[in-house]
Amino acid sequence: MWCEIRNFGVHNDSLAGGGRSFQEWIQKGKPPCPGRLNETRHIIYKSFETPWARARLSLGVMLKEGILKENIDGEALLWAAQRLFKTEERRKILMMISDGASIDDMTLSHNPPGYLEKHLKSVLKTLNHASHLHLFAIGIGHDVTRLYSKAITLKSSDALGKTLFEELPKLFKEEKKI
């Protein structure tokens, strides 16, 4: 059984028992294939306009315990790509740093198996065909090369800084995307 991705509500605040999305789903009688049942939180660590020197302290928030739990990678990529496509730069680089798994316990427990991974694969297929977009992934602790055509897998986040400094210049030197 496959269901389309849909949301009962996009809210940034949460309530006990899964937040508003979950509550709306219950109020509607728990229909099958509810889609995402958890709240969304979009965190911008560095805006396009902010110079790297001013953004360094904000990037440290990524390491805060618990802030990145229950991530839905497909939705995150779509959101980031939509923001990126609004910029004037002709060439766009989108880097995904992931633990390799889309996790949202509520969504996974009330939808068919593989629901979030199927959505991620669909998003990746779309983004891989977008002109002037260079998509690159770094997997931390899990192999992401099965999902992303350009990817590196790290054993731990300790190597992330070094890897970024080694791999980012390679992306900027790449030939035009065909």
- Percent of sequence in beta strands: 5-15%
Helix and strand succession? HHHEHHEEH
Q: Order of strands across the biggest sheet? A: 1-2-3
Q: Judging from the principal axes of the Cα atoms, what is the shape?
A: globular
Oligomeric description of these chains = single chain
Sheet bearing the most strands, described? Answer: 3 strands, parallel
Count every beta strand, where a strand is a DSSP E run of 2 or more residues.
Answer: 3
Helix content: 25-40%
Distance between the termini: 35 Å
Give the structural class. alpha/beta
**Segments where pLDDT lies below 50 for 5+ residues?**
1-17
Count of discrete alpha- or pi-helical segments spanning 4 or more residues: 6
Q: What value does the average pLDDT take? A: 79
Kindly provide the radius of gyration, computed on alpha-carbon positions and rounded to a whole number of angstroms: 17 Å
Structure description:
This protein is of the alpha/beta class and 178 residues long. The protein has a domain at 51-173. The protein contains six helices and three strands. It has helices at residues 19-27, 52-59, 73-85, 105-109, 115-128, 160-173; strands at residues 92-98, 133-140, 151-154. It has a three-stranded parallel sheet, covered by helices on one side. It is globular.
